[in-house]
Amino acid sequence: MLKDLCSCKITNSLKIEADFVADAIWCNQCGENLDIEDFPITENLKVELNQWTGLYKKISIKEHNSRGEHLTEKVKEELGPEYKIVFIPDRK
Ligand SMILES: [Zn+2]
Prior knowledge:
Helix content is 34%, strand content 16%. The protein contains two helices and five strands. The protein has one domain (2-87). The protein has helices spanning 43-54, 61-79, and strands at residues 2-3, 10-11, 13-16, 25-27, 84-87.
């Protein structure tokens, strides 16, 4: 369980979504953007997530969503089963 990262007292419900000026991980309860440095995931995965948000709207929606799904699976593997993590695909 993550504590004091957002407006929620605790959260284990996260979403992975790209935006121009935000990190890739959001609280799926209050909707606030979270700092990926606060997560116990590997440096390698943090770099991959930042590269992915950096490419937002620079690659096709299809490629964006396919990379995003792949990264979401990696985040799930690294954070473990107590977290509920969903991927929000880009539609525009
Ligand atoms: Zn929250």
